[in-house]
Write a structure and sequence with these properties.
It is an enzyme of class 6 (ligase). InterPro entries: Rossmann-like_a/b/a_fold, TilS/TtcA_N, tRNA_Ile_lys_synt, tRNA_Ile_lys_synt_N. It is found in: Cytoplasm. A hairpin with a 3-residue loop joins strand 13 and strand 14. 35% of the residues lie in helices and 20% in strands. The strands form 4 sheets. Strands 3-2-1-4-6-5 form a 6-stranded mixed β-sheet, sandwiched between helices. Strands 7-8-11-10-9 form a 5-stranded antiparallel β-sheet. A 5-stranded mixed β-sheet has the order 12-15-16-17-18, with no helix packed on it. The radius of gyration is 23 Å and the shape is globular. The chain is α/β, with parallel strands linked by helices and 396 residues long.
Length: 396
C-alpha cells in the first residue's frame, strides 16, 4: 500500500472505503485492509437485477460484520434499457463514489489482481489498442471526486483465496466466472504462463511510451488550449496540427462531453482532419470573427436529463450543483435562449444547466457570460470527471 501513495489519516471521519462484491478477491481485500487500517468501510452494491441479489448482498454484509468490518449495502435504481453491462458499471461507480464521499472518504479500494490485469491486456491487444490501452489497469487513478486504488495488481488470485482459507473466511463464487460464452473466461482459462509473462513485458513498454506522451501532452495543452467558464474550449491553430493532435482532441472531447472514455481513435482522427463536426456529444468548429483556431463545445442534443435540484447532484456528467436544496425545482438544460453581448458564442448556451419549475426558468449558473444580468444566479461547479493529464500513474 505504501507504494500507492498517501491515502489520508486513519480516522473515523475519513474511512477508507472498499468495494466488496462478496467474491474471493474483494473479501480478501477487505480482510487485508482491516488488518492494515482501523477505520475502514466496505461498500456492497446490490445491482437489483436478480430476485436473490438483495439477500446475497445482505449475507456479504453479515460475513463482513463477523470480521469486524463495518459495511453499507447500496442498491442500484432501475437501469435504462440497452447496453445493460455498461450502464450497470456506470451506475455502480456513481453509487460507490457518492457513498465514499458521504462517508468522508476520498479513496476507494478495488480488488483487481494480477490475473485480471493479464486478461485485460490480452483482450486489449486483440482489439488493437494503442500504448494507452496496453498500459492496462492503473494501481492509482483519479476518477470523479475520488481516487481508485488497486493494491492487488501484483498478487496472484490463488494467494488471495489461500489467505481467506487460512483465516477461515467464506466467500461467494459467481457461476458466470466459468462460462466460456464470455470472452474473458476463455482468455482466463486458455492463457499460458509464457503468454501471461508476455503481457507484462508489453505493459512495461507501453507505460514507458505513455509516460513520455503524458509529459509532452501537458505542455501542449498549456500552450494551445484555453478553458472557458461555460465549459467550452478555445484551441489555437497549432493545437491539432502536431503529432499529439489525435491524443489531445480525444481527451478534450471526453472532458467537454462529460464522458467516461475517449472516443475511438479512428473517429477522433477523422474529426481532426475534417476540422469540423460532432463526436462524443461535442462539436468542433472554427472560431468565429477575427479569432483563428477552433472551438469545442457540448452539442445541443441528448440533453433531456432532468434531476432534482439537491445539493451535490451532478448533471450531464459535467456540472455539479452546490446550491441549497430546491424541492420546487429540477436541474435541466437551459436550451435555446437569447444571447446578450458577444462574450460567448450562442451555440454554447443551450447545453448549460439551469433550474426550472415546469416551464419557468428559475436560475442560471453564476459566472456565465452572455445571459441577461437580471437572471437569478445559483452555484454550479464544473465536475467533468477525469482530468486531461495526470489521471493515473503511468510509471508502470
Amino acid at each position: 500500500m505504501e507504494r500507492l501513495g498517501p491515502v489520508g489519516p486513519d480516522e473515523a471521519a475519513h474511512s477508507l472505503c472498499i468495494a466488496v462484491s462478496g467474491g474471493g478477491d474483494s473479501m480478501a481485500l477487505a480482510l487485508l485492509a482491516r488488518r492494515w487500517r482501523r477505520n475502514v468501510l466496505a461498500l456492497v452494491v446490490d445491482h437489483a437485477l436478480r430476485p436473490e441479489s438483495a439477500e446475497e448482498a445482505a449475507l456479504t454484509c453479515q460475513r463482513l460484520a463477523a470480521l469486524d468490518i463495518p459495511s453499507r449495502q447500496l442498491t442500484l435504481g432501475p437501469l435504462k434499457p440497452g447496453g445493460m453491462q455498461q450502464r450497470a458499471r456506470e451506475a455502480r461507480f456513481e453509487i460507490l463514489e457518492a457513498a465514499c464521499v458521504e462517508a468522508g472518504g476520498s479513496v476507494l479500494l478495488v480488488a483487481h489482481h494480477e490475473a485480471d490485469q493479464e486478461e485485460t491486456l490480452w483482450m486489449r491487444q486483440e482489439r488493437g489498442s494503442g500504448a494507452r490501452g496496453l498500459c492496462g489497469m492503473a494501481a492509482r487513478t483519479v476518477r470523479g471526486r475520488i481516487t481508485l486504488l488497486r493494491p492487488l495488481l501484483g498478487i496472484r488470485p490463488e494467494r488471495l483465496r489461500e489467505t481467506l482459507r487460512q483465516a477461515g473466511v467464506v466467500w461467494c463464487e459467481d457461476p458466470s466466472n466459468q462460462n466460456r460464452r464470455f470472452r474473458r473466461v476463455e482468455v482466463r482459462q486458455d492463457l499460458t504462463d509464457d503468454e501471461r509473462r508476455e503481457m507484462h513485458d508489453i505493459r512495461r513498454q507501453a507505460c514507458a511510451e505513455q509516460q513520455d506522451t503524458e509529459q509532452r501532452l501537458a505542455a501542449h495543452v498549456a500552450s494551445c488550449v484555453a478553458w472557458q467558464p461555460e465549459g467550452w474550449l478555445k484551441l489555437t491553430t497549432d493545437a491539432l496540427l502536431s503529432s499529439l493532435g489525435d491524443e489531445l482532441l480525444g481527451r478534450l472531447i471526453r472532458l467537454v462531453g462529460g464522458q467516461d472514455y475517449v472516443p475511438e481513435r479512428q473517429a477522433v482522427s477523422a474529426l481532426r482532419q475534417a476540422g469540423t463536426g460532432s463526436l462524443g456529444r461535442t462539436c468542433l468548429a472554427p472560431l468565429r470573427g477575427r479569432e483563428a483556431g477552433w472551438m469545442l463545445y457540448r452539442e445541443a442534443r441528448n440533453l433531456e436529463e432532468k434531476i432534482s435540484a439537491r445539493h451535490g447532484q451532478c448533471w450531464d456528467g459535467r456540472w455539479r450543483y452546490i446550491g441549497p436544496d430546491r424541492p420546487d425545482a429540477v436541474i435541466a438544460a437551459l436550451g435555446p435562449h437569447r444571447r446578450e453581448g458577444r462574450g460567448i458564442p450562442a451555440c454554447v448556451l443551450p447545453a448549460l444547466p439551469a433550474l426550472w419549475a415546469g416551464d419557468e426558468l428559475l436560475a442560471v449558473p453564476e459566472g456565465v457570460r452572455g445571459l441577461p444580468p437580471g437572471l437569478p444566479r445559483v452555484a454550479f461547479v464544473w465536475d467533468g470527471g477525469a482530468p486531461l493529464t495526470g489521471e493515473r500513474d503511468w510509471s508502470g
